[in-house]
Amino acid sequence: MVTFLNPPGVHTPVGTYSHTALVPGGTELLFISGQVGVRPDGSTPPTIAEQAEQVFANIAALLAAHGADATALVKLTMFVVAGQELQ
């Protein structure tokens, strides 16, 4: 199990995260590739909000395929860029 800690002597996090995450030795790590807001049927939702929701649904499905859920996430990096048409 991942142990999250905000030690004294460091400012309180300004968001919903912890300053440290300790993953015990011998634990398997799962790396997930970058996800975009594309539905399982290959369609793209029309709004950025719907696309963002789809990204998180995709991540949840990928975690579930390995018997995990969002509580197992240690790091999540997001890039939001100007949109381009999918070919």
Explain what this protein looks like in three dimensions.
This protein has 87 residues and is of the alpha+beta class. The protein has one domain. The protein is built from one helix and two strands. It has one helix spanning 48-64, and strands at 3-5, 20-22. The protein has a two-stranded antiparallel sheet with strand order 1-2. The protein starts with a strand and ends in a 23-residue tail after the last helix. 0% of the residues are buried. The mean pLDDT is 87.
Q: Brief overview, please?
A:
With 87 residues, this protein is of the alpha+beta class.
Average pLDDT level: 87
Provide the gyration radius in Å: 16 Å
Q: What is the strand content?
A: 5-15%
Total number of domains: 1
Shape: globular
Percent of residues in helices comes to 10-25%
Count helical runs.
Answer: 1
Please identify the oligomeric state.
single chain
Query: Secondary-structure element sequence?
Result: EEH
Distance between the termini: 41 Å
Give the class from helix and strand content and strand pairing: alpha+beta
Unreliable spans are none
Strand order, main sheet: write it out: 1-2
Number of strands: 2
- Please summarize the sheet with the most strands: 2 strands, antiparallel
Q: What labels describe this entry?
A:
single chain, globular, 1 helix, two-stranded antiparallel ribbon, 87 residues, alpha+beta, 2 strands
Write the layout of secondary structure elements.
Blueprint: E1 3-5, E2 20-22, H1 48-64
Antiparallel strand pairs: 1-2
